[in-house]
Amino acid sequence: MHPAGAPAPVALRSTTAMQLREIMTPSVITAGLDDDVLSVAQLMRDRGVGSVVLCDSEGEPAAMVTDRDLAVRALAHDRPSTEAVRSHGSRPLVTGEQEMELEEAAALMVRHRIRRLPVVEAGELVGIVTLDDIAVRTGNLEVAQRMTAEVIEGALPEFFFHERG
Question: Does the pLDDT value for residue 24 go beyond 60?
């Protein structure tokens, strides 16, 4: 972390010119904002994913919900499984564009402390990029590990800055 509290710039030296369209996963699992928590959890299980992009009634991406969100925000609070998933998703939804350079997207992910970046084109969901994609598709595991640490550190500052004794 830099002194002013800003994360260190993410340098992807060999992948600077790479665009999101080159590494994104084009198939994204989606659900509606009004779908119930149980059906979204089952969708994640059935599709083997840890996140779902929630779309509004016009089909535009509006929020992201993860398996952790459902566990911590719904199950741990004994919410009904029939409750709409909309209140458990993360907003605002931070997105990238297909032409965005990977270095810019990586900096955006670190700045917003997110591990998944939906990719949109003219309001339409066209793909998703995850920290794992960056590691696997660029071959730069070190950068992905550093990004993951920075994202987690930002999400859990009390853990990292808690005095242990």
Answer: yes
